[in-house]
Every structure is written in structure tokens, then in C-alpha cells.
Amino acid sequence: MRWFPPKYPTILSPMWTPLLLLLLYFAAADHGGATIISVTDHGAVGDGRCYDTVAIQAAIDACAGAGGGRVRFPAGGDYLTATVWLRTGVVLEVEAGARILGGRRQCDYPADPARWYVVVAEGVQRVGITGGGEINGQGEAFVVRRDPRKNVMVSWNATGSCRGDECRPRLVGFIDSVDVVVSDVTLNQTAYWCLHLVRCDHTFIRNVSIYGDFDSPNNDGIDIEDSNNTFITNCHIDTGDDAICPKSSTGPVHNLIVTDCWIRTKSSAIKLGSASWFDFRRLLFHNITIVDSHRGLAMQIRDGGNVSDVVFSNIRISTKYYDPSWWGRAEPIYITTCPRDPGSKTGSISDVLFMNISAVSENGVFLSGSPGGLISNLKFKDINLTYKRRTKYPSNLYDYRPGCRGMVKHQTAGMTLEHISGLEMENVKMRWHRSNVKGWNNPLSITPSTVNKLSFKEWASEIC
């Protein structure tokens, strides 16, 4: 293992130096000047019926003009608004008991769908959101028809400015911004992605609670897109779609730390991709609890980007099947590389460590590279996998979506291996509940002539 000196990474490993510097940076960061301006001073009424957009934006602009500070939303108010824009040096302080409510109309948002957010910052520095209150996207207003399998949602695509069935506003977005802090706030009921970082540098997210309709698609928790030097800690995410999702659309994702989070989702709790045109490097996920999710830890590399230097440690996972309209088949760990379509490039995944992972799942671990995109230098150390069926959804299906091969019938195994060069397993235990053995064919399923350089030490499989 090239970068695990001598057996697995320590915090003193050279690879971690940028991440240690990142932690020190955030420890020393100070956001917000001395100025405090209340939105009520500029005419906000906070009754949840009248739009307070003009008053909120005026307070933000006045605070920025004074050199920065805090814009306060007093407790007890429901502040209905169209899109508002943060300015450099301004932190929104939403007090406990206060709510910012996103508008339900398309006219509440800019003409450009890429700027459809309730709160958005673009090209600014030293900005944030805090205070103990809530930002609510009123996502229930965007449900056309409720369905326990998956809700049918509004899509604002009639004008042609946005295509497809995902034309809905996000909740909070930071675009091309530096020194961003989001802390001690609840982000609730978004119609689409909840907290979106786009090409940001130095972002700190702490003590954020995210709640989305568990039956609604595309209401991701935190999307880290083309952003670097990001630290996420002590967050609670309970939503329908992917919970923490690094993406690389226009640039790489480097230096991401995620620690001490609780996650439940009908999709992937942690997922790299599927937007993956550029590289992912130096990512650490530590001390995370994943509950009743469709997938635990996932990589969907589809567009030619490469993944390297990633650690998952001290993670507890439980997975279960949901309706097949959601990507996933209850895999605790799902690592894949394959081209999205015939014209796509093939990326690779290398140098990934899974350490001290425990899982109770309805399906096995799925490690599937591709002929042009091998998975290499993986290590599993101190892993406990328990397999137990608890739903009636059919098994014996592997899910390669998006693109690739779609849904494929396949024997169910404790671990499936395809197109891998270099896999080390140390102290890995698999257990099957005796009442659930039917349908499980074998502990390991290896596609012939595609797997090389395997190492097993203290590996065990048993029925319990």
C-alpha cells in the first residue's frame, strides 16, 4: 500500500499534512465584524405571509456597507423570502425560534436556474449562517403526488430555461466563495439539494441538522462540488437522497474531512460522484453512524475522474432495501468505476482504506472496477459484516446505475470483486443470520481473470 506507512495511515503521515493545516485554519478563523443589524430594522414583519425579501436584502447590503457583521433574524418570526444574496463579511444570524421560509413560486427565483436558491452567496469571502434557527424550503409545496415508493415532484421546466424533472430550487448555495461557515442551524424541507458548495475554498460546516422528506427524490443533504479544503463535523442528516456527496463537475475535490455525523437516507449516506469529471484526493470520513440507508459508503465514478488517498474509519452502518426506483441495493460498501455512456472516459480508484467498520446489511460489499478503470490498492482492516434480510424486496440484483449496465441479475455474495488489482483484507469477519442463509450463494464472488494481488489475513466467514 503505497501511502499507508507502514501498514495504515497515522495522523503523522505526510498525506495528512494539508488536512491538519485545514483543522488549524478553522480553529483560528473568525467570521463576522462588530456590526449587528436586525432585518426588522429594515421593515421585515416575519408573519410568514408577506414577503420580507426587500427588507432582508437591505439589511444584508447595509451590513456589508458597514464593513461586515451579522444580520439578525429575531426569534418568533417566519420570514418569507424570494432569493436573497449574501455579501462579503456578512453572517446571517437566524435566532432559535426564527425561520427563513423559501418562496414557492418560480418568480421568487432568478432567471438562471443555476442560481435558484433561497439563500445564495457568489464570489464573496468571510460569509456564513448561524444562530440556532431554521431555513425552510417548504418542500411539501413541490410534491405533486405523494407515493411511499417515491414522491412525484414539481418541475419548473415549462419555460425551457431548465430541462428534465429536477427543475426545483435548492435551499442554500455558496458559489466561488472563500471562508464559509455554516453552524448551529437547521436546514429543513428543501425542494431540491439542501446545502450546495460550488468551487468554494475553506468551508466549515458544524452542528447543522438537515431534514428532508424521506420519500422525495433529489433532496441531497450536503453537496460538495468542485470545492476544496472542506471540514464537516457534528451534523445530523435525515433525508431522501444522498446525504454527503462530493462531486467534480468543473474541477477537483481535495482535502475533505467529515467527522462525527449521523445519517439516514433512502440513497447513499456518503457518495463520491456520480458527477466525476475531475479527481478526488485526500478525503477522510471518520466516526460516522449510518442508519437504515439504501447504501452506506459509495463511489460512483462515471466520467473519467480518478479517486485516491481516501480513508473511511470508525463507521457504523445499517442498510435496508427500498423501492428499486432509488439507486442502490442495500450495499454497506459500494465502489464502482465504469463509463456513464459509450462516449465517456473511464476513471480509476486507488489507495483507499476501510478501517474499523461494522455493518448490518441486507446485501454484500460490491467492489467493481472496469477494464479501463481498475480499482487498485484497497485495504480492509478490522471489519465486521453481518448479513440479515429484513424486507421482502427481491435480492440477486446488482445495481450499476447510473449508466453502465443498469440493473443486472447476479448471485448474492458477501463480497463481489471485479476488475481489481491489489486488495488486502486483515481481520475481516462475515456473519450470516441462520434464518437468512437462503439466497446467499457464497462469501466471495470473483469474476474470473479480472482480480489480481489478493491478500487475506485473519479472514473468517460463518453462520450465526
List the helices and strands and how they pair.
Blueprint (H helix, E strand, L loop, with lengths): L16 H12 L6 E4 L8 E5 L1 H13 L3 E5 L4 E4 L2 E2 L4 E5 L4 E4 L14 E6 L2 E6 L3 E3 L6 E3 L6 E2 L16 E6 L2 E11 L6 E4 L2 E11 L10 E4 L2 E6 L2 E4 L4 E4 L5 E13 L2 E7 L5 E14 L1 E7 L5 E13 L11 E7 L11 E13 L3 E4 L6 E13 L9 E3 L7 E3 L2 E7 L1 E13 L7 E7 L4 E13 L1
Parallel strand pairs: 1-3, 2-4, 3-6, 4-7, 5-8, 6-9, 7-10, 8-13, 9-14, 10-14, 13-15, 14-16, 15-17, 16-18, 16-19, 17-20, 18-21, 19-21, 21-23, 22-24, 23-25, 24-26, 25-27, 26-28, 27-29, 28-32, 29-33, 32-34, 33-35
Antiparallel strand pairs: 11-12, 30-31
What does this structure look like?
The protein has helices at residues 17-28, 53-65, and strands spanning 35-38, 47-51, 69-73, 78-81, 84-85, 90-94, 99-102, 117-122, 125-130, 134-136, 143-145, 152-153, 170-175, 178-188, 195-198, 201-211, 222-225, 228-233, 236-239, 244-247, 253-265, 268-274, 280-293, 295-301, 307-319, 331-337, 349-361, 365-368, 375-387, 397-399, 407-409, 412-418, 420-432, 440-446, 451-463. The chain has 464 residues and is mainly beta. It has a 19-stranded parallel sheet that branches. It has a 6-stranded parallel sheet with strand order 5-8-13-15-17-20. A 6-stranded parallel sheet has the order 22-24-26-28-32-34, with no helix packed on it. Strand 11 and strand 12 (152-153) form a beta hairpin. The model is unreliable at 1-12 (pLDDT under 50).
